[in-house]
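User: Teach me something about this protein's shape.
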Amino acid sequence: MTWWMWIALGAVFFIAEMVLSTDFYLVFFGASALVVGFLALLGIVLPEWMAWLLFAGLAILSLVFYRKKLREILFNPDAQVDEEIVGKPVSAIRAVPVGGAGQVEFRGTVWKARNIGEESIDAGDRCRVDRVEGVTLLVRKIS
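Assistant: First, the predicted structure itself:
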């Protein structure tokens, strides 16, 4: 494969990681493809079998040694929302059934939300933040 094909393959892996729910795996395949592509661009010519072996080896090694560390840095499970949001009105983006999950908008930002009220929330309805759990807002419909 030529250098630009490797770089295109890397871009496809990165786009697939953003579009699909792969839990941060395809990034390493994309980075490995980019490395092989840039080596070819720099004039380091490898036989086809060696380029594929290098691609696979880099992907597997980086997955094994770096995925967990990078995932902890990028996706902090202990992230918290400032408690000052409690009591503030938010707007539902989509319908949220009683006890169900959905999304709300607060100050131009989309948040995960769970309806803890006793009535269903329709798209566009105003709700109030009752409390916060991690980065999820627990909301009730404003009657």
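Now, about its shape. Residues 3-74 form one domain. The first helix runs from residue 3 to 19. If you'd like, I can walk through any region in more detail.
User: That's plenty for now, thanks!
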